[in-house]
Amino acid sequence: MTSKLFGTKAPLLRRFVASVMLLSMIGGVVISVVIASVQLNHLNTEKEQAARLQLENILDSAAYAAFNLDSAQGLSLLKGFEGDQLFQAVTIFDNYDDAVASIEQPHQLDLIPEWLSVVIPVDETVVLSYPLTFKIYRDSQFIDQHVGNLVGTVHFHTSEAEFYDLVWTICLSTMAEVLLIAIILTILFHNQIGRPLSKIIDSIDKNAKLERQKNARLLKIDGHENDEFGLLVHAYNNSVQQAVSYMRELESAKAELKALSEIDPLTNVSNRRALLSELNTLCNHEHPFALVSFDLDDFGGYNDANGHQEGDVLLVRFARALREQLPHASISRTGGDEFVCIIPSQSHQQSVEDLLTPLLNTPVREDITSTQWISSSIGVAFFPENGHTPRQLLHATDIALYIAKEAGRRCVRFYDKDADIARTNREAVRKALQRIIETKEFTLHYQPKVSMKTGLVIGCEALLRLNHNERQQNVAHVDIVEEAERTGLIVALGREIMRRAFYDISQILDHLPDNFRFSVNVSPQQLTSDGFIAELLSCSEDNDVPLQSLDIEITESSQMINTDSTNKVRNWLKNAGVTVSLDDFGTGFASLEYLLTYGFDQIKIDRQFTQVLPGDDDAKAIFNVVKYLADKLNMDVIAEGVETLDQETYLLNQGFEYAQGYFYAKPLVIDDFIQFVACRQAKYSSSV
């Protein structure tokens, strides 16, 4: 026990005893010097207290001088410190640390040997600083405002004669006492402090080794119940008891918080965190299970119509229906109206579909006579067939749910790899579309329209082409246009294409023949959108290209049939000199009704009919009918997709004049296009 007390576990106590023994060996002289130093420090402390008292006596007056920046008053206050050797300098600073008043006086040095300065602090300086506050009246009350600082530099010095007298007096009287006290202290320390303290250290070490202190034993130390060691043991025992109690409460709170963190508070089913944890566990085993995602159809509309409180009631009712229909499943709510279930030991589609079919409709009222229902879309994936990790399985159920929604909702669908690939491709197209609209990083190629009778170029069609980065991602411009139509971004895309086409044509307008028209494809959505007419006027004025040079090509669509907005736009275009062509005629919606109601200036027969000429009798019949209708309705006809001389010869013999296709030229960049126009003009203009 004694060795432990004076060993490495008690370094402070060991150093204390060693110091006592060393003092005894050195003798009274060194002890006398130490005691003298202590006395001098005490004397310096008294001097410092006296200095503080003097400074504190002038705080109020100094604050007043600092507040008023009154240097005269400040100097008057500091006059009392002149001649006082205790102060080396006293300064009154304002709130910006500028001196308002200050005094300094030289320090009188005593010739004390340098070795004394090493032993004791015979020459020491202390800076005393006091904040200055002044009461001001603000907001109907007096408040203390900081106005500056009072700083005094106090210098303590000890004369050589004073020091020697003190040392010799103490040395002679303490030499014998030091030896006696050292012996007594060592014995008392060992018996009264060392032994009981060693016992306490041993007991604390043993308790510290107990696991998490839940079974910590209380300390006991006989014979010291009523002294400081008894109080120390009592305080330690109280802390141990409180720690044990706190740890038990903490364990209970942690268990409760863990349970709450994994429960959805509204529906009282598991949340996404608990779902992921359970999926991680299940995926580490080989037992099959089905992962099912549910989504309430048009839940947002139900909320808007009935309020969020009714929506919450519906979610609770749907969660209860899941528990009743799937009693052995683990049910989680992962989003607003999204639920995910884990059905163990299921790997057959038909059995799972039979189990889930009753959940396709959920009554919005508990009344059994209620006829109001809300439907669900359900996506299913299987472990391990559709994924081996939680992330893969959740992705698979998302794809299955997407398939269910694409199929019209209110149905059960299973993960399909082809649909997954298609969705990934569509996502790539969507991102490319957004990037094109935001960065305008696309080009337009122009395919010539030719008069087969004269050989001259009478117009061109602007066609979207993607930049190199988009082509590397296997995104086609056709896919871009289709995605734009599906998402409604066709209006923004069409606006950018129109602006680019007007700009390109403005660069070559002076080199184009008379009556030349450039065509731009316009979606029915764009044609009837707000600001379409204003956008055309802006493009024309900004690029100095007349609207009479523009031809708008529209693909057949049910949106274009006999509406006020389309009729209004059509009349404006006609008055502005803009022609309108019906693109891809024969493949779209209600072609004959279009011809009768919208009043197109031109019909473009789809390339699929042109390319089978002249050998296909059905295609010949279609061309003859279109020619007859166009003549009766006073419309021009352009044959798309002309690729051979035989096709051109047949069309000319049947009375058609205009054509477009690879037989004349592929879509060209604007510089190559103007060269093509120049060549055709030079070659055929003399024969016209």
From TrEMBL:
Record keywords, A-Z: Membrane, Transmembrane, Transmembrane helix
Record SMART domains: EAL (SM00052), GGDEF (SM00267)
Lineage top rank: taxon: Bacteria
Cross-referenced CDD domains: EAL (cd01948), GGDEF (cd01949)
Entry-linked Pfam families: EAL, GGDEF
Transmembrane residue ranges: 12-38, 166-189
Keyword flag Magnesium: no
NCBIfam families: GGDEF
PANTHER family to which the protein is assigned, alphabetical: BIOFILM ARCHITECTURE MAINTENANCE PROTEIN MBAA, DIGUANYLATE CYCLASE DGCP
Protein name: EAL domain-containing protein
